[in-house]
Amino acid sequence: MEHKTEMWQLAYGWAPGSPKIVFEQLFYGKDVHNFSAFYRDEYDRLLEKANGTIDFKERMKLYTQAYKILFDEVAIIPILHYKNIYAGNKKVQGFYADLNEIIDFNQIYIE
Q1: Neighbours of 43 (CB within 10 A)
Q2: pLDDT score for 49
Q3: Is the Cα torsion angle 51, 57, 61, 67 positive or negative in sign?
Q4: Are 79 and 52 in contact (CB under 8 A)?
Q5: Can you tell me the mean pLDDT for 57-78?
Q6: Which pTM value belongs to this model?
Q7: What is d(CA 27, CA 36) in angstroms, rounded to the nearest whole number?
Q8: Contact 66, 59 (CB under 8 A)
């Protein structure tokens, strides 16, 4: 007996921190991990443009536009929003965490 449905469940326990990794691998039309079969030219174009942009603010603006398309058209229920909180001291310099929350301790120094 064949069953057809327009609804399915996708559950990932994955929090790499980078929007590129999550939203490109899971929903980018050409990615082999796109098990949802979601495909929109405009969404893919925005991701491609964001990936080729070195300006952080511009890249985040493009990701936001792509996410609006995704959240308008795909039923996504985030169950966890991971966020790191850092405390600092003005004497500590060179502290930087990238989008994957990787901290290069070789660049940190006390002034």
Answers
A1: 22
A2: 94
A3: positive
A4: no
A5: 86
A6: 0.55
A7: 7
A8: no
